[in-house]
Sequence to fold (439 residues):
Amino acid sequence: MDEFERFVHDPTVLAIATLIGASGVIWVAVASPARKLWPAFKNLLGLGHKKILPPGSSEHDIDSPVLAARDVSAMDEISNLSGQTIVIQPGGIANFAFYVDGLPKAAGAVYEHFVQGQRLQKAERHNEAIEAFQTAFADAGTLEERGALHLLIGISQAAVGRLPVAEGEFREALRHFEKTQDRMGTIAALRNLGLIYADYGDLQAGQEHIQRALVMAQEIGLSADLAGILNNLGTVEYRRGETEKAEGRYQTALRMHEETHDFVGQAGDLCNLGLLYRRRGQLEDAEKCLSQALELATDVGDRHYQAVALADLGIVRFDLGDQDGAAGYIERALSISRETGDRLGEAEGLANLAAIYVERSELDEALRYLEMSADILHEARNRPYEAIAHLNISKVQLRMDGMDKAEEHCRMSLAINRQIGSRIGEAEGLVQLGTIDLR
Fold:
């Protein structure tokens, strides 16, 4: 108990630790806002089902020697393909999308593989999309081409949960875009990196990268892109517990997406607001937002936000005591995640199903789902959620009288939270460690 007692004498932690200890909480739910990655530079704005020209642009921009498609007659297909939002969902943070509308006219074979990769991304066949984009590298002769391909590969790598690989691709994209002074590409890379760092638990680095993107967007007049960037900042603020700031960002983004008839963007904003209201205990408001998000995502065929909204509705129904309703929503979300290869969404679904089994006292089944979830999160290097998974395993093991395993997983959770600097996570772990000692 000495370690725990030293920790809770810290006045900034005492209230948190007391609250957790007094509540008798068995479960640390896996739920966070939903997050989308930006595919590359010039964009058909809106998270995607409306063809809108890039901010400050005109029809003549299609013929730009840097960003135009090789075959202008194919722009309609490129526009439609680019209108599909590509997503990563580690338990979610909804944000934005930014789309490539073409590669240089001299792209040749690069262009063909680019279009094929876009088709595969739209179908959420991300591993095949990665192969198509990697094949294009053989013919990519310019930094612009290579930067775009790195960014697109990063998006698909992140979509299937390989966050460290995605980080490397985004870093390469950023290096190429900065060399060519492509500010729109730089904005996209910065935002994606910001989200990756937030998923690692480094919220400061995440916020710094997104702030840089915001400043750059303001400097070049990308007013139409601000909804996405505001959503990004709201995501980081949500995870820092700054819910009033986050709500303001999400509400502003929602108004902007409504003005541009961006239905997928609206679905993302509503998912974020729904989770924020759930965090505050406003469950009716949360359910209303999430139901609207599900309807929008279903209408436009956005599989990602269908899964996000379903999963989050399951969590709200669980909070309302409706276990059967919760299981139905979560199983539907899990099915979509598996069909689309969204490993992080799968990890979230498994953890949330485990919560239902805990509530039903079916602890062996709960433990099985939690261990599967933890393995996926470890592979993806999603450190904050891996810490939650180990803490949940510890709680289940404690209820099963597996004292050694309970302590082992609790200490694993503590180590991760200390590494990423999560004081709240550390407090939760130390409360659990104290509970184990008392047994």
